[in-house]
Fold these 2 entries.
Entry 1:
Amino acid sequence: MWRRIREWAGSIRRDVHALFLAARDPRTPWYAKAFALAVAAYALSPIDLIPDFIPVLGYLDEVILLPPAILLAIRLVPPEVMAEHRAAAMRAQGQPSSRAGAAAIVGIWLLVAALVWWFWPHAAR
């Protein structure tokens, strides 16, 4: 059972990477790019809708919300584009991860938080 869960988690990780690659492909329609990029950013982001330190509830967004969003994003991307990027994501699985990429994602979330903080009090006036 644990082996199947690990395989499933690995396939989700691969598909999220493939969606990120497909979002940057010019053959992908704009609406699929936007949704795929949003799903990949949320899946790869260290910031969650429900923080992971909250017992049980912290992982519900990853278990309940993320898989259907990934499946929908995969369906929006043309099949030949998705197959090509799945193969590229599979080849990249053994390569080391990028700290610069992680820093960029954290920087984007901090920028979004700063913009929300800046405009929130000004919108109430």
Entry 2:
Amino acid sequence: MTYGHLDIFGRAAQLYDEVWVAVFHNASKKALFSVEERVELLGETTVDMPNVRIASFQGLTVDFCQKHGAGVIVRGVRAASDFDYELQMAQMNYGMGGIETVFIPTNPLYSFLSSSMVKDVAKWGGDISPHVPEIVQSRLIERLRQD
């Protein structure tokens, strides 16, 4: 999780009374942190956002939304290439469950950030402190040392 993610969460929290950050459990993908660890980190980094809730899920995003009474999915987009993919997902989610999608353009300060890039920089000993909260930086460095 980067400051880009937190920026989108915070901006969404200004628009909606309640914001759910949904952590998807993808068994086919080898994540650096478990779902439980990601939920914990998100909880720690969003503590100053009282209307933000964190939960994990498996399955379809529309099912998560319906379970939690969310009628809108908020997605951050960095570039046109992000939008192309996100638009297809938005149309599918609307078709399956009537769930709207709102796109929030990424703050230009974070437009180049990606979690993969941050992990690569950390792996090679680079300074990631401008890009992630301190708790995320320390946990990431600790995890990379274990591998």
